[in-house]
Write the structure tokens for this entry.
Amino acid sequence: QVQLVESGGGMVQAGGSLRLSCAVSGITMANYRMAWFRQAPGRERDFVAGINWKGSFAYYEDSVQGRFTISRDNANNLVSLQMNSLKPEDTAVYYCGATSGFGHMKTVAPYDYWGQGTQVTVSS
């Protein structure tokens, strides 16, 4: 059974930091590109950051570039998202996704597996 389990969400004041983790089981994570998406109430699930198989290249949504850092540990099947200088507009449920294909990482379609999400709330 494939499981992606996010943790590390919570409530923080603007300017603060959080570190999200995604524990992956049931698949060989090294065979998947990994990404973080987020979904705010009334909005679609939007791309935040992605990372290739070996962690040698990362992609970011423009509004988080320079504030967020995605990383992966294939030996321990973990993907992380370090979020600094958080803003109220970062408030959302954050999801971890895994894709085995070569599709465009910034859309939801290529993803084979998703976690259940973790809530991040940033107060002003």
